[in-house]
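Posted in: Structural Biology > Protein-Ligand Complexes

Title: Requesting predicted complex, S-adenosylmethionine in pocket

I'd be grateful if someone could produce the 3D structure tokens for the following input. Sequence and ligand are given below.
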Amino acid sequence: MYNPKSKEAEEFINDGEILETLEYAEKNKSNIQLIDEILEKASKRRGLNHREASVLLACDIEEKNQEIYALAEQIKKDYYGNRIVLFAPLYLSNYCVNGCVYCPYHAKNKHIPRKKMTQEEIEKEVIALQDMGHKRLALEAGEDPVNNPIEYILESIKTIYNVKHKNGAIRRVNVNIAATTVENYKKLHDVGIGTYVLFQETYNKEAYERLHPTGPKHNYKYHTEAMDRAMQAGIDDVSLGVLFGLERYRYEFAGLLMHAEHLEAVYGVGPHAISVPRIKKADDIDPTVFDNGIDDDTFAKIVACIRIAVPYTGMIISTRETAECRKRLLHLGVSQMSGGSKTSVGGYSTPEPEHEDSSQFEVSDTRTLDEVVRWLMELGYVPSFCTSCYRQGRTGERFMEICKQQQIHNFCHPNAIMTLKEYLVDYSSSKTHEIGDLLIQDELNKIEDERIREIVKSNLIKIQNGARDLNF
Ligand code: SAM
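-- Reply #1 --
Done. Output follows.
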């Protein structure tokens, strides 16, 4: 039954194969010889399959676990250097017809304020985001064919791209909306979205159906095959994720990797990124009622094992997590994070009074974007506002090829430096600016190619003098 090349959800995410994988991993969790062989293979940077990676996840030998963390950290450095890409979510509407039991936007919630932004409100919201310094957004909306039809989403994306306030611009809009048709994915592709993001929530069909009792999202097959439809529609950057806490994490981990293997086997390109959200407290949602919550150590291990298994795939961590937790995960593989986020509809331009809270979940890292940028730099990272890859046509297979050869550095590092400079000149506090300029000096010296270094130096002067959006 298991067939990564099949386009049938239950064949490429096959329950039997996952259960066998978990059994195999459990049986071998202390098998030093096998674990060493897997680590040896992983150290060649070619990734691991779901079975091999599941053994590492289950491994209970402390010394080997330390090797896993060290390798994850090294792979992270090799592929992504010290850059961290920043973005913010933008909630368009929280109208939703689904019954997801972990989400406060579920249709039975009659007391949460329902909000849907008009195009004028979106403009205001985008100006607020631009004034923070953001260049990249993740668009979020509930599923509601009447209130949030695809035409509304498309119009909103066009509005977002068209807002030009001072030196601001949103240059990449990633989209996290419910599974839809090939035709609608084509429309999203045509308005120039960056990545299509859809969390599987859980790969376990039985749990999936129980956790999504009503609404179109109940359909496991339709949801699980969404990325195939997106790829068929020409969207070649897709982003996967599971909501940790719903099901047994080892099951989810194996399912997630099988999904990545499926995309690679059929379309020649794996996921552009993987998100690792954990369930959070929200309006009428109590995360402790879900049995499968994971502690911070397990969470770190999952991130490290994903990093090792799919080295070319970006990893995203949101403000669901605390600053402390995010710091730990940065070392182990995270390459993108949100900053200064609001999970309410319209929350950037108009702070909501408590009795009118429309947010999807509580944010744990409540720092401003400026504070996050400064913190990253103090930790030795280069905050990046780069959006250049997809605008330069480096998407899908092309991106993967460059990334697998560890060449992405040649574009991303100079672009990170230049977009950080834009941020410092236009939006940062004076303290952040000072730290940033010193960091940029250090980073310039790390550019090995003299020609590129000279171009970047001259571009930094141009940026200081008002030029914007210079990129490789
Ligand atoms: N409605 C779309 C869908 O169904 O995929 C858009 C996704 S929703 C706006 C974004 C994600 O938030 C969901 O996919 C889910 O994983 C996550 N989410 C929902 N409730 C959450 C909670 N209580 N805590 C943390 N994340 C949550």
